[in-house]
Amino acid sequence: MNKSIVYTDHSALKYLFAKKDAKARLLCWILLLQEFDFKVIDTRGAKNYAADHLSRLENPYENIFDPKEINETFPLEYLNKVAHKDPSTPWFADLANYHARNFIIKGMTSQQKQKFFKDARHYFWDDPYLFRTYADPIIRRCVADKEAIDILNACHSGPTGEHYGANYTAKKVFDSGFYWPSIYKDAFELVKRCDSCQRQ
């Protein structure tokens, strides 16, 4: 392979090869660059005609788009939505973001992070749903809001018209393969509001 010549104004590159006792991060770069046979020639930016010419090329798309003004006046309700968690966001949004996109919310304390990662071990993402695992072999899909209430109502009312108690309703939800953190609380609230159950 022929020796290549690199013309650059990046003088630190020459320094990198001359340094004898480099840190581990720089050693990685040195080892990577040693695989290639090249010579570095330091050239000032104005004397490096090819790079200088490329940096001065006109942008052909410069005047195609109309400049738009940025509206910086936000109604108070939008500012409040940014400052506080939006109530329409499902309870599992942070876990789903972590498993689907490896995204972690900022601003957590060390205890909150520790709890978050401890909880996150029990969940996994299979597009487009988040699932929760337990010791039993049933993998439960995480649900929220209207879907959770619909599932709870379906499990509470039996096919022949009978109505189950709160604990049995919650157990039926679990056995059906669904999960949300307040299943028992929601089941007790449903039974408390159910007219048929209260008459028995």
TrEMBL record:
InterPro entries: Integrase_H2C2 (IPR041588), Retrovirus_Pol_polyprotein (IPR050951), RT_RNaseH (IPR041373). Residues 147-199 form the Integrase zinc-binding domain. Transmembrane segments: none annotated. Residues 3-36 form the Reverse transcriptase RNase H-like domain. The keyword ATP-binding does not apply. Keywords: Endonuclease, Hydrolase, Nuclease, Nucleotidyltransferase, RNA-directed DNA polymerase, Transferase. PANTHER family: PROTEIN CBG26694 (PTHR37984), PROTEIN NYNRIN-LIKE (PTHR37984:SF5). This is Reverse transcriptase domain-containing protein. The lineage of its organism: Eukaryota, Viridiplantae, Streptophyta, Embryophyta, Tracheophyta.
